[in-house]
């Protein structure tokens, strides 16, 4: 049974109880008022009647001075001759109708009693009054009235009330169904929306009609929930797409060194297989014993192949390490962090960077701003973060310089790597931290996997650092890492003038 039908039945049942109660009360009130008028009139008529007692035979006779109305019938019962009573006198209308009112015995005769009787199919209401003399019961005065019209009126009233009540119930049931349907329509919309969302056919669906009642509140709550579900679904879809793209790119990046290694191994096998077959032919004295390549040529070819294999193995090792770092990032890996003195770390990074292969000049600016500065982080990962930017600067700066600078700004310290290389196009800026993304063809000609900046962003996020990128497509890029300074241990910092940050012409910032 649906909620709509249950609500309608409950409403109709309650209305039926109210209608029945109201009808009963109304009928009782009207009936009592109608009969009350007759009772009052009968009592008044009884008070007007004067009864005389004849001493000879104790005859009870009403006085003629009190005329009777045609709707009033009078009967006098005499108990002086019999305890059961004898009708002594009747009004003319009773005589004409040959009707005698039933009367009680002397012991049951009560004063002021009303009784309703039906005689020969005619309804009467009778009022009885004791006739006494000196405290002795002599007779009983009965004054009756015809109540056929009143009974017919009350019977018609019953029919009208019953029909009206039944019609009201039917109408109320129909209206109740309509109102319940209208009231529950928003809930039906909610159900339809939930079913469509459950089927995954339309996550953009929203429930219309936000009223200010409870259903409106439910609608708003569900719409907000649908928005969150849609966002979560979109994020999941983007994550799945990124994962598929990641796997595809990783497979492509791994396939290249593996193909190179396999090709060189096949070449070595072929070269030395020919050598072995040539030696065997020489032992048999065959003319095929003459080798195609000399020993020196085979050794030179082998060295080149082994060099290529070594380079590709190192490249693949770096790629696997980068993939491991990103896998840790995706898994929510939390690194161990501790307070670190930043000056020794940056000095070591600057010293080690001087040994990297490069064509650009390596310049280290003043590091005085780092004196006494501590940050909470992981030393190894911060070192890796700096080297990612330094190596990128060396890769994409075929001529010019790569510079390390530091800045102090309130409670942050900035480590900046600036180069005069090829720069980054404006269209590439939003995606430079995407995995495996590499900018235009000029950058694509440089060795790399496109994972370095993704790892740098993960390391920065772990250290609650901010990455700032400035670049000009015609040349020059600056990557700045803003690290929060650790004030957990109070230190006396030297007052040092803030370094002036060189402006990059027409800088693009992200």
UniProtKB/TrEMBL annotation:
Residues 181-234 form the HAMP domain. Its EC number is 2.7.13.3. The keyword ATP-binding applies. The chain crosses the membrane at residues 7-30, 159-180. It comes from the Bacteria. It is found in: Cell membrane. One of its GO terms (molecular function) is ATP binding. It catalyses: ATP + protein L-histidine = ADP + protein N-phospho-L-histidine. One of its GO terms (cellular component) is plasma membrane. Residues 249-487 form the Histidine kinase domain. Keywords: ATP-binding, Cell membrane, Kinase, Membrane, Nucleotide-binding, Phosphoprotein, Transferase, Transmembrane, Transmembrane helix, Two-component regulatory system. SMART domains: HAMP (SM00304), HATPase_c (SM00387), HisKA (SM00388). PROSITE patterns: HAMP, HIS_KIN. It is a multi-pass membrane protein. It holds the Pfam family HisKA. This is histidine kinase. It comes from Cohnella ginsengisoli.
């Amino acid at each position: 049974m649906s909620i709509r039908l249950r609500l309608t039945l409950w409403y109709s049942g309650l209305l039926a109880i109210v209608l029945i109660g109201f009808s009963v009360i109304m009928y009782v009130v009207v009936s009592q008022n109608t009969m009350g008028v007759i009772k009052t009139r009968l009592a008044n008529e009884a008070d007007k009647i004067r009864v005389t007692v004849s001493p000879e035979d104790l005859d009870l006779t009403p006085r003629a001075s009190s005329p009777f109305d045609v709707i009033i019938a009078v009967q006098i019962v005499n108990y002086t001759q019999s305890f059961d009573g004898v009708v002594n006198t009747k009004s003319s209308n009773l005589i004409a109708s040959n009707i005698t009112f039933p009367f009680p015995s002397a012991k049951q005769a009560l004063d002021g009693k009303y009784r309703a009787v039906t005689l020969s199919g005619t309804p009467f209401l009778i009022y009885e009054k004791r006739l006494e003399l000196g405290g002795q019961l002599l007779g009983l005065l009965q004054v009756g009235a015809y109540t056929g019209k009143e009974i017919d009126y009350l019977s018609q009233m019953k029919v009208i009330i019953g029909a009206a009540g039944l019609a009201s119930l039917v109408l109320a049931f129909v209206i109740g169904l309509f109102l319940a349907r209208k009231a529950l329509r928003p809930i039906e919309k909610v159900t339809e929306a939930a079913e469509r969302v459950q089927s995954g056919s339309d996550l953009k669906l929203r429930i219309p009609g936000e009223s200010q009642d409870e259903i409106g509140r439910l609608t708003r709550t569900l719409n907000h929930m649908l928005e969150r579900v849609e966002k979560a679904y979109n994020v999941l879809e983007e994550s799945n797409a990124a994962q598929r793209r990641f796997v595809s790119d990783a497979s492509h990046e791994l396939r290249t060194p593996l193909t190179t290694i396999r090709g060189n191994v096949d070449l070595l096998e072929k070269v030395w297989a020919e050598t072995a077959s040539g030696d065997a032919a020489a032992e048999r004295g065959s003319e095929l014993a003459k080798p195609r390549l000399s020993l020196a040529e085979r050794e030179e070819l082998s060295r080149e192949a082994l060099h290529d294999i070594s380079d590709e193995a190192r490249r693949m090792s770096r790629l696997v390490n980068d993939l491991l770092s990103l896998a840790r990032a995706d898994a929510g890996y939390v690194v161990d962090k501790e307070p670190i003195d930043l000056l020794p770390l940056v000095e070591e990074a600057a010293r080690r960077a001087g040994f990297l292969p490069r064509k650009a000049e390596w310049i280290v600016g003043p590091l005085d701003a780092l004196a006494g500065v501590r940050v909470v982080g992981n030393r190894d990962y911060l070192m890796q973060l700096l080297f990612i930017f330094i190596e990128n600067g060396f890769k994409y700066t075929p001529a010019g310089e790569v510079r390390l600078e530091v800045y102090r700004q309130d409670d942050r310290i900035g480590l900046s790597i600036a180069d005069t290389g090829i720069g980054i196009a404006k269209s590439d800026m939003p995606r430079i931290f995407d995995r495996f993304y590499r900018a235009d063809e000029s950058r694509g000609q440089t060795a790399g996997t496109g994972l370095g900046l993704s790892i740098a962003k993960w390391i920065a996020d772990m250290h609650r650092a901010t990455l700032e990128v400035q670049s000009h497509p015609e040349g020059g890029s600056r990557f700045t890492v803003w690290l929060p300074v650790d004030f957990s241990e109070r230190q006396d910092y030297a007052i040092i003038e803030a370094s002036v940050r060189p402006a990059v012409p027409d800088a693009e910032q992200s």
